[in-house]
Amino acid sequence: MQEMFNRLAKGSKPRAPLAPSTLERIRVTLRVALNAAIRDGLIEHNPARHLELPRPRKPRAVIWTEYEVERWNRTGKRPSVAVWTSAQTAQFLHSSREHRLYAAFHLVALRRFRRAETAGLRWCDIDLDNGVLMITHTIQRINGRLMHCPPKTRSSQRMVVLDRGTIRELRQHRARQQAETTQLGCVPSGYVFTNRRGQPLNPDYLYREFIKATADAGMPPIRLHDLRHGAASLALAAGNELKASRTNSGTPALS
């Protein structure tokens, strides 16, 4: 069996190598069939349990440089995974400031929130006076229903210390949300980000709104998940500016 999977992964003329996801589906099907054979008393153990498959290669992220943007505008072709520069991330945040979910974009871009974490955030999880919040659960769409789920990993359940800019954006978002709830006569759900009916936000809806906001801002397309890389690029840019400030004046300049 291992030799068979090795050959399928390697490929041979004229057959191309199978994708890791296809190999995994084959293994799952094989394990199910052999488990049935165990139940029928035909074999004593499942040899497919210990098969080693090649790990799928993650696509390499492409930075939206001026050249890549020009090629995208000219041909319409885009990388499967792309990230913005720090300047592009800042431009998007500036252009989308009036969006009703701007604070959500802010958390994803600057605090590296996942979209399911953002959708699951509740006001009771946030202490704006002390500048902290807790990631305790997420919202995911499962079998057509929004479900409360634990964070993606154990380390994802965490406390986040908020900077002054994020605290300011959350306060402004809460004020707008309260005004919207009063105007529409909705019962507050307790969630930080909701749809226009005041109900918990579908993570897919957040993604679609981000795609629309990206197009409205005239930005090259990226996935909402890749917006999280903006936090690292902005932090790197801020670090470089801080080093330059120390070099020039001897003391760091903080904004």
Automatic annotation (TrEMBL):
Q: Which GO terms describe its biological process?
A: DNA integration; DNA recombination
Q: Does the keyword DNA-binding apply?
A: yes
Q: Does the record's keyword annotation contain DNA-binding?
A: yes
Q: By its UniProt entry, which PROSITE patterns does this protein fall under? A: TYR_RECOMBINASE (PS51898)
What range(s) does the Tyr recombinase domain occupy? 79-255
Q: Name one Pfam family in it.
A: Phage_integrase
The record's section on InterPro entries has: DNA_brk_join_enz (IPR011010), Integrase-like_cat_sf (IPR013762), Integrase_catalytic (IPR002104), Integrase_recombinase_N (IPR010998), Tyrosine_recombinase_XerCD (IPR050090)
As one GO molecular function, the record gives:
DNA binding
Q: Which UniProt keywords apply?
A: DNA recombination, DNA-binding
Per its record, how is this protein called by name? Answer: Tyrosine-type recombinase/integrase
Q: Which organism is it from?
A: Actinospica durhamensis
